[in-house]
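Why do we bother with holo predictions? Because pocket geometry can differ from the apo form. Keep that in mind while you read this record for 4'-deoxy-4'-aminopyridoxal-5'-phosphate.
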Amino acid sequence: MSLDPEVVRKDFPIFETRMRGKRLVYLDSANTSQKPRQVIERIVEFYEHENANIHRAVYELAERSTAAYEGARAKCAHFIAAPSPRSIVFTRGTTESINLVRYSWARANVREGDEVLVTEMEHHSNLVPWQLLTQESGATLRHLPVTDDGMLRMDLLGDYITDKTKLVCVGLMSNVLGTINPVRQLADAIHAMGGLILVDAAQAAPHMPVDVSELDADFLAFSSHKMCGPTGAGVLYGRERLLEEMPPFHGGGEMIREVFADHSTWNEIPHKFEAGTMNIAQAVGLGAAVDYLHSLGMDSVRAHEMELTAYALERLNAVGAEVHGPSDVDQRGGAISFNVADVHPHDLATIVDQEGVCIRAGHHCAQPLMRRLGVPATARASLYIYNTREDVDVLMGALEQAKGWFA
Ligand code: PMP
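The structure, written out:
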């Protein structure tokens, strides 16, 4: 089933908004996606008909809210082909999911002399927590280099994954380069050394089928707001065996089994990691976003984005933009970073905004990668299910104008 972005657009009320009287051309979905009516309405329905705190009360309304929340967990498990909803922990998003692993698993397992491996293309969310962890524990943080065309230096794996490596932290799809990384190969390499792999799927989960067993991921994180869901929700997938062994992250209500004056015992997983009142409506909204993406089909989502990415790359090359990252759409997603000679990315973003075009400019929370690319910042257009060739054409017209201003 192929995806028609003009039909998809009709599900997104925001596209009825005009920007300076012009069509809204939203090319910043890697930052956050727009929300379909189906998700917005599900959240309203929850507040109008099901709202109560979860897991705590015996009355019918609380049973409804608990069913909605736990139903969303089951949908998320299915979405990434996780063996059981018990392996799905709700968080605020990818950043919190990664920090959960840092505070819980890594603090208990990473010691002085051990190594944690990240890559040169990680988002700050999958870098800074590991800087903090290694500084605190005396472990060493290493960075797998990136080639000039934005791929991981897999030829160096033998040097970077050794019996000292306890954890590999890697993005499945780069938010800057669009690169889809060979996560399964990294998983096999680290598992052979007895270590674990954490996969940052913030950019992958919204755009391609993700299967935790195929990836052989030990942990995998993603955010609701980048995949048509609301802000304030996200997922940490963890192998059940690991989650069972791990100490809690936050302490408080709900995560306990029994509390005594001086100590407590812990609830079963995943509740052990969900302290206090969670973002219930947001989790329910994430469940609706999963339903929405399933109705389109993740294979169709990926196919549409590959086709549109190929078109955008061709047009960007034709206007003389310097595009970062792989040129083969089999190896990349639709987050496209580029520079246009002599025009600062911030100026570019401001000029195209006059045409109703939203693109991001800056370091994209990947400052070490900017240094590696030798640029202070890039412009980034990122594509999603509701983008069309017309959107790309409007961007190109605006870029031509910007070039004209600085000629
Ligand atoms: N990792 C990647 C690759 C991302 O693109 C982002 C968001 N830009 C994050 C992590 C952080 O996600 P969040 O802000 O939703 O926690």
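The pocket of 4'-deoxy-4'-aminopyridoxal-5'-phosphate is lined by residues 93-95, 123, 125-126, 171, 175, 200, 202-203, 223, 365 (CB under 6 Å).
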